[in-house]
Amino acid sequence: MAEFKREHWGSKIGFILAAAGSAIGLGNIWKFPYIAGENGGAAFIFVYLICIALIGLPVLMGEILLGRTSQKNPVGAFRALTKSKFWPLVGFLGVIAGFTILSFYSVVAGWATGYITEAVMNNFSLYNETASSGEHFNSLVSNPYWIIGYDLLFMAVSMLIVYAGINKGIERGSKILMPMLFVLLLISMMRGLTLDGAQEGIDFLLKPDWSRITGNSVLIALGHAFFTLSLGMGAMMTYGSYMSEKDNIPNAALQIVFLDTLIAMMAGVAIFTSVFATGLDPAGGPGLIFQTLPVVFSKMPGGYIFAIFFFLLLTIAALTSAISLLEVVVSYFVDEKGYARHKAVLIFGGLAFAVSVPSALSFNYMADIKIAGLTFFDLMDFLASNIFLPLGGLLMSIFIAWRWGLNNAVSAIKKGAESLFNKHPYLINLWIFFLKYLSPILIFLVLLHSAGLLKK
Ligand code: PFF
């Protein structure tokens, strides 16, 4: 009778903080700057913001709603709402996506964790030039013991938090960690803005070069909108399942989108002011922040302490996201397969770590092994961000609008948000239009492009 004992968020802010904690992570601070850098800056950011507003927000509301209505994990949610055998597979796709993302996520989170140690040992002062800092990064990631060791440490801490359960673990952790993250990022941004040469970074973020927009960059922007909002794989559905009907979903979704975008923009300012001030290449790839920031820290007063704080911040942000990834997998096995929570955490956390090993080895032993031209690490990222998540979002939108039925969806979304929709009734129609037509069509076109079926 697990349903009767289902834990709930202790407070409204508990859900928002935990969901924002899932959304805000390496995606905002590590991935957003590096893909924006590779895809030309401002114009890419513009497309990304459009994807967030037109697709991300409506789909996020839908996904949370499915979780709240069913009070179930992603597979159980579809089972509870339809008799069809097909739809629960969408939830299962989410469980697979969870593993796929964790497999590369914990590797980068491990870099952040390892960089805390580097900062504490004051190693950045030895590598205070752009070139030597790049070499330092390369030599660390080419050491399999370093990369796998910190990957393991990070996974172990994530498992410990998920092990403690929803109220005690995730909610309590997020309440302390999220505000801390915000303050640290604010300081990083102010530091970046006061560097010599910061203006060039601001221009890169604000002055669009439209010629850089290609079908491929639109695909990356859309995939990142899903990735950064933890959308399309059931993470928000799982968190929504711990919500009650008194909670206002549109409001919560808007706050999550706002906070996530704010943090990405703050990270963008902090990183690109520093990238240009240190003369680095903005298209430097996945190592971008790990190569740039140590140089900046080593050249600023108080940089020693600041570097420790920054990488601590990054690790914390990664932690609140990783626990939501693991939670999707764990809640599926607990609810659907009758596993004890503790056992599910141990088994599937362990398994996720095992799958992360080839991702970690992509930076050393397996660097030359390419599948479809990509290393294992890049392949996992590509599959998850550009295929699984948009596909999951597409199917969820279709499910809500065309299968579950708009009448059900509308009456469910109104619960907890009566006053908002009484005051602005057109918002409901807008949401329906986006979910029924706009997001499915846009996502479908982008997926067709990624399958190579549409020419640029
Ligand atoms: N949104 C997280 C980030 O931006 O780092 C990554 C993520 C977490 C994606 C949870 C998907 C997910 F379910």
Description:
This protein has 456 residues and is an all-alpha fold. The chain has one domain: Hydantoin permease (Orthogonal Bundle), CATH 1.10.4160. Helix 4 packs antiparallel against helix 5, helix 5 crosses helix 7 and helix 7 crosses helix 8. The termini are far apart. The structure holds 4-fluoro-L-phenylalanine.
Essential attributes:
456 residues, mainly alpha, Hydantoin permease, globular
Nearest-integer average pLDDT: 88
Corresponding CATH architecture:
Orthogonal Bundle
Unique bound compounds: 4-fluoro-L-phenylalanine
- The end-to-end distance, rounded to whole angstroms, is 53 Å
- Total number of helices: 18
SSE arrangement:
Blueprint: H1 12-23, H2 26-38, H3 42-70, H4 74-81, H5 88-120, H6 130-141, H7 144-163, H8 166-193, H9 198-206, H10 215-228, H11 235-240, H12 249-277, H13 288-298, H14 303-337, H15 341-361, H16 376-414, H17 418-423, H18 426-450
Helix pairs in contact: 1-8, 1-12, 1-14, 2-10, 2-12, 3-4, 3-10, 3-12, 3-16, 3-18, 4-5, 5-7, 5-14, 5-15, 5-16, 6-13, 7-8, 7-14, 7-15, 8-12, 8-14, 9-12, 10-16, 10-18, 12-13, 13-14, 14-15, 15-16, 16-18
4-fluoro-L-phenylalanine binds at residues 22-23, 25-28, 101, 227-228, 230, 233, 235, 321, 324-325.
Outline of this structure?
The protein is 77% helix and 0% strand. The chain is mainly alpha-helical. The model has no long low-confidence stretch (mean pLDDT 88).
